[in-house]
Amino acid sequence: EQFADNHFIRTIIEDDLKSGKHTKIHTRFPPEPNGYLHIGHAKSICLNFGLAYVYDGLCNLRFDDTNPEKENQEYVDSIKEDVQWLGFKWADEPRYASDYFDQLFDFAVGLIQDGKAYVDDLTLEEMREYRGTLTEAGKNSPYRDRTIEENLDLFNRMKNGEFPDGSKTLRLKIDMASGNLNMRDPVIYRIRRAHHHNTGDKWCIYPMYDYTHCISDAIENITHSLCTLEFEAHRPLYDWVLDNIPIQSHPRQYEFSRLELLYSITSKRKLNQMVSENHVSGWDDPRMPTISGMRRRGYTPEGLRLFAKRVGISKSENVVDMSVLEGAIREELENSAPRLMAVLNPLKVTLTNFEQGKTASRSADFHPNHPEMGSREIPISQTIYIEHDDFAEIPPKGWKRLTLGGEVRLRHGYVIKCDEVIKDENGQPIELKCSIDHDTLGKNPEGRKVKGVIHWVSAEHAAPINVRLYDRLFTVERPDTVRGEDGEYVPFTHFLNPESKKEITALAESVVNDLPPESRWQFERIGYFVTDRKDHKQGQTPIFNKTVGLKDSWQA
Ligand code: ATP
Ligand code: MG
Ligand code: MG
User: Fold this and answer.
1) What is the pLDDT of residues 58-74, one digit of tens each?
2) Residues 6+ apart with CB under 8 A from 396
3) Would you name the residues annotated as active-site residues?
4) Quick check: 556 pLDDT over 60?
5) Which of 109, 275, 311, 436 is at 20 to 30 A from 127, Cα to Cα?
6) Which CATH superfamily is domain 8-96+212-328 in?
């Protein structure tokens, strides 16, 4: 069972199946194609598609495309790709709210005929004044009592393009004194001459979200319409619309809490700003919390699904530390990524007693628990490289790595001893002279224990690689909630980490020369890395992105 269990929505579904209210459940994931999907959407995708999977039902992918200015085909395509990459299949073809524009229009005409909708001439600003507040009832619009005939005529003329943008709206006639502001005669159509990615220039009036969403759900015979908590107060309107139009099906809306990730941002609008202001290289920049960014970073669908399962589904606040996300990714990669050795910050080591022909190479499996991943030879030569950090001339307490006069084991190789340190004019080590204990390949040395094991590469055999190292994108936990002394929000871009990306060259075992893009590896003792999906090209210097370190770096 790979999806979040025992949450209240599952209880509701199980009750509905038991009571016979539904024989099959049908959910939907309804993104607006106004940006790329992010980690919050991943939670919603895993919930909606996961429930359909677990209860043998169906899940639709529906584009909620009622704001033509902000939407486009690139976003539609990226959303389809991301959902599939996460491992899910939608029922039939993707749906579009815009497929229902004719039906939505007809239902609106019906509402007018029933005296339940009217054309209003108030401006947006006037409407806001008439709306009232939480503590004060609203006022009826002076246009509220237009006759049905007049409303039908005006609405048709709105559709036919006889009025300028924004000059008229169609509103539901509900209750201007309702305690719920959403019920105070909500606007359901506005005039907007905008080109639509699906319907082109056919329409100059567009339906509003609240009106469109419930009807789209009903047309598709959705049984459980799951959304985030900010729509709780919209539920009475959802039900009102379905109760007042001639449609059989009446899906039920249930709300759960939005996922928020610390040191990150989960808002398409703000992520869009990051892209348009060039703070990142694009929506799929490996630092972005978008699904495509995380993919490029090397995260796996399995790891993201594990994360979604762990954060769970509830109505309480769902603010999650980055270490939870990285922990899930790391845990999944531990068993799925083969391993190799790479040295990111090389220190030259000369093996003084190396003997061609006598000093043997060794074959090693790519994964200690998965022999089916294959193996490779690990050749050695007179010169090798180790990490600078694995040598300390004056070792701190508890040091298990290499030190002057000390011994260490080379991973998959011999025990070596450091006999001499060569330094530059600043006193920094630039080369070590070491001797090999030739009797230690695959066995312990006689009469003494060598605890430390370090990774290394052979100078003669290693391949140069480019490595992109990433750090947190923001320097504060909640970059979009910080207020300045004046009480105003500080722009979240103020908290961008200037050191979130670093590119270095490094040395790795030569297997890196034959990798396709998106090949995920553990660099032993360092972390997980992936060949870049876009920039890595076979036959050129390999380009790796750091996915995540082996240890949690989020603890202070
Ligand atoms: P954004 O503010 O980032 O644009 P949205 O909710 O407007 O988010 P939609 O494209 O309308 O974006 O979202 C599609 C679905 O994904 C909705 O059902 C929404 O509730 C869900 N969703 C969006 N963000 C989150 C989140 N942070 N956590 C959980 N679900 C989310
Ligand atoms: Mg939305
Ligand atoms: Mg939005």
Assistant:
1) 999 999 999 999 999 99
2) none
3) 32, 258, 268
4) no
5) 109
6) HUPs (3.40.50.620)
